[in-house]
Amino acid sequence: MKVPDIWSKPRRRLIGPFCVQMVEPIDLYWKCGLANPHTSHCLGSGQIMISCMGEPGGGGKGGFVLLDGETFEVVSNWEHPGEAAPFGYDFWYQPRHNVMISTEWGAPKALIHGFDPAHVKEGHYGSSLHVWDWTTHRKLQTVDLGEDGAIPLEIRFLHDPNATEGYVGCALRGCVFRFYRTLKGDWAAEKVISVPSKKVEGWMLPEMPGLITDILISLDDRFLYFSNWLHGDIRQYDITDRRNPRLVGQVFLGGSIISDGPVKVLEDPEKHGQTRPRIIKGKRVSGGPQMLQLSLDGRRLYVTTSLFSGWDKQFYPDMMREGSVMMQIDVDSDQGGLSVNENFLVDFGKEPDGPALAHELRYPGGDCTSDIWI
């Protein structure tokens, strides 16, 4: 039998991602009264749902936009009129339990140019979770996390579709809360991890929080990972005991307290000291570990360093000039443990159009932060 010469036939050349369609800001405004879109999820209906952080004037408004999954046209709001949350950011839904829970960052006009601690006292940042009925789209409950829960960003249900619990990372105080459905049928939250702030000098405040900016859960629901963008470390916790996470892995990747930087640590409750700058393949890492993505087998953790350009400029000006990077962390998925792959680095400072600030990571076909089972 003659094997066909498939290589002599014309082949489509892969030239990288290209823009298919843009949803204009004016469409979000006129059809939904929203702006500043953030998290997107594909729904079983075929539609795309995107959370928004505010309204066009820069104030906070936690609403949701529905897009047609085929045409990408703006369809409508997901929430009912008058039921948008004060602030928006991330969300995760569990259709088996008819629930969605959303989080809060802050008013875009307050955070766009950087972080001002006064804005927290003035009420421009959130500290609550919002519970929604997945079928009726009604807001059912607001769970106030208090001061330790200020700026709750990324939220993750356990992947097990039968589970009625998960975790949310709260940036400002470096805390992780476990949220869960109570015996009464409503929802509650409890603090299960706290990263202590470090007393410092040469920084904007006398104490520096870890600033938890991203969390994820392995597909087998055994490990929780999160990044401390300011302290510069990634942590791995065994969450087999859901209420008592146990630290089993940690690695430092830059951050604001490196040994040759302008910040001096005066007191560190965890006694880590000031770590050396991280250099991979001859490139000094600017910034700290930020967005995370885990391979489906749980053995490779990928991380980028850019959070948001206004905050990047404020806390890591070198990254604005040099671009962000992507690194790979090797994971011990049996006993726990993290180590840097010294042979892997994607340098976005070498982009053809100049340095870029790469942020989110996604696997084609689904990953640990997008897959939702019913």
UniProtKB/TrEMBL annotation:
The keyword Protein transport belongs to this UniProt entry's keyword annotation: yes
Presence of keyword Protein transport: yes
Location(s) in or outside the cell: Nucleus; Cytoplasm, Cytosol; Membrane
One Pfam family in the UniProt entry: SBP56
Bilayer topology: Peripheral membrane protein
UniProt keyword list: Acetylation, Cytoplasm, Membrane, Nucleus, Oxidoreductase, Protein transport, Selenium, Transport
Gene3D superfamilies, per database record: YVTN repeat-like/Quinoprotein amine dehydrogenase
Class of this enzyme: oxidoreductase
Reactions accelerated catalytically: methanethiol + O2 + H2O = hydrogen sulfide + formaldehyde + H2O2 + H(+)
UniProt pathway: Organosulfur degradation
Coiled-coil blocks: none
Enzyme Commission number(s) of this protein: 1.8.3.4
Family listed: Belongs to the selenium-binding protein family.
Task of the protein: Catalyzes the oxidation of methanethiol, an organosulfur compound known to be produced in substantial amounts by gut bacteria. Selenium-binding protein which may be involved in the sensing of reactive xenobiotics in the cytoplasm. May be involved in intra-Golgi protein transport.
Family matches, as PANTHER family: METHANETHIOL OXIDASE
Protein name: Methanethiol oxidase
Organism: Ameca splendens
Gene: SELENBP1
